[in-house]
Amino acid sequence: MNGKFTEKAVKALRFSTEEAKRMGSAVIGTEHLLLGLVAGDGIAAKALLNIGVTPEKIREQIGSLTGIGQPYGGEVTLTPRVKKVIELAQEEARRHGVNYVGTEHLLLGLLMEGEGVAARVLRNLNVDSEKIWRQVIQLLGGQPDDVPLPNTPAGPNHPGKNVGPSNTPALNEFGRDLTVQAREGKLDPVVGREDEIERVVQILSRRTKNNPVLIGEPGVGKTAIAEGLAQRIVDNKVPEILSGKRVVTLDLSAVVAGSKYRGEFEERLKKVMEEIRLDGNIIVFIDELHTLIGAGAAEGAIDAANILKPALARGELQCIGATTLDEYRKYIEKDPALERRFQPIMVGEPTVEEAIEILYGLRDRYEAHHRAQITDEAIEAAVKMSDRYISDRFLPDKAIDLMDEAASRVRLTAYTAPPDLKSLEEEIEKLKSEKEAAVRGQEFEKAAKIRDEEHKLREELVNLRNEWETQRDGAESVVTADDIALIVASWTGIPVQKLAEEESDRLLKLEDTLHQRVVGQDEAVKAVSRAVRRARAGLKDPKRPVGSFIFLGPTGVGKTELARALSEAMFGEEDALIRIDMSEYMEKHAVSRLVGAPPGYIGHDEGGQLTEAVRRKPYSVVLLDEIEKAHPEVFNI
What we know:
Elements: E1 4-5, H1 7-22, E2 27-28, H2 30-39, H3 43-50, H4 55-65, E3 77-78, H5 80-95, E4 100-101, H6 103-113, H7 116-124, H8 129-139, H9 169-174, E5 175-177, H10 178-183, H11 194-204, E6 212-215, H12 222-234, E7 246-250, H13 252-256, H14 264-279, E8 282-287, H15 304-314, E9 318-323, H16 325-332, H17 336-339, E10 343-346, H18 352-370, E11 373-374, H19 376-389, H20 397-414, H21 419-440, H22 444-474, E12 478-479, H23 481-492, H24 496-500, H25 503-508, H26 510-515, H27 522-536, H28 559-571, E13 577-581, H29 592-595, H30 609-616, E14 621-625
Parallel strand pairs: 1-4, 2-3, 6-9, 6-10, 7-8, 8-9, 11-12, 13-14
Antiparallel strand pairs: 5-7
């Protein structure tokens, strides 16, 4: 937990831990936090007691909503919802311009969160947020009417949230201060990447040409390195020369947007550069650095890259750039004058182990956002499955996306009303229409009967909804490896049960599975099964196919059928078979259709029949049917 807590707030958190154990819970929920706050002696306790909320009343409500079990003696953890409450409390403390979190901020965090058992307890006790808010403000010595009720977490427009010093108005308009965001705890933690950040610091400390450019594939964490530097500056973990500097992301599109007249774009950019030069304490971060080339260049005008070149060379402007390998080669390398002003830093894709560590570091943020617990198995599954099954993207981005979407799915499932509830609502609506029709037809007795029936159903609906809400708030949403597998299946089309089933069991039964479709052909089935097992045991090059087989035999003995059976056994469906009829490739030049035409020939941009099919469906069995009819050149491919 980041942020400083007052003694009374720490005491309240300790009380909530004790209350959770006393009630037989292995987790600290919002209800235990509410009990801890009212049992303490801080402002929150006084505010709650002043409006008649006592520990006894809260315990009684908790007992009726979730029940109380036998005392628990083990370790207790915070639920994601309580983590969210603490985050909101820290936001609220910053909003009031204080650098500590008191019991009043924790209470306001509970009110702002607005869900969970604590919110239901307060609703059942007929206590509204405004009443508590007014009490807190009065106890703090303020006038309740002067201070607005915080309906939402503090945002950038709230007091105490200046985007940067007022002596750089143009930069504040077109930029976003990463150091301010780091100070406010709004940036995600950066795990690893010490070498890259160290190299950035070294280059920034140079006298001239002190401009690093981060080059790497999309999603490997280039922007995160700039955020990591901002966090280091805030934590004062940088050399003296960089201490106290601001890292500001410059939004080039905002500088270009709305510049209607000739010279307006150049004027804006020059104004930003002048502010940076006069301040002397600013590091500019430009994401997608290649957008500098040609930005704002109308006929006869100078583009952003040429405006920035002199300042970059003299060291007046310190700039960190980030771009992909392709864009760097395509745009920056073609302009040697711009290229020499930047010092390249290659940012590689992290290993599976490093990606797992990165996700562990991010877990708290995603748990707080989704109010769901993300297990270690889910994190490992997200990294390993994304590495294995999603080949066209890069770690850690694809693994983070998997974890995020799985947590989102789990939360939505928990918050979707059950079918009984929906059907009851539909029935009530139907009765309402019938009642109105009866009244219009002056059938008042019938209308009265329908009204009584409607009242009965409404009571049933209220009870059912309360029961569902209690069950929903009491149950802990957990993201498991199975949830990750479901998302992978929806992304790639590989059947989820095949991913979730223990691979070793499936491989041991591979011969039996194949023999269910292919009778006989023992030697071929054994050879294929052995090759697949060898590959899955790790005794193969991961960049090569699992195996290459050539099935020989007369027509109709089951060569193609074995390939189909293999695709179904391995990938769960016959459609995972890419079949290419090789009788179409009898001429030597036709072979190029498999891998695509060479540069300069028609169809160069379209890709080959084989390469495109494999790219779209990488987990497939490739069947080159009737290979003897193809030109011998095929074997070279």
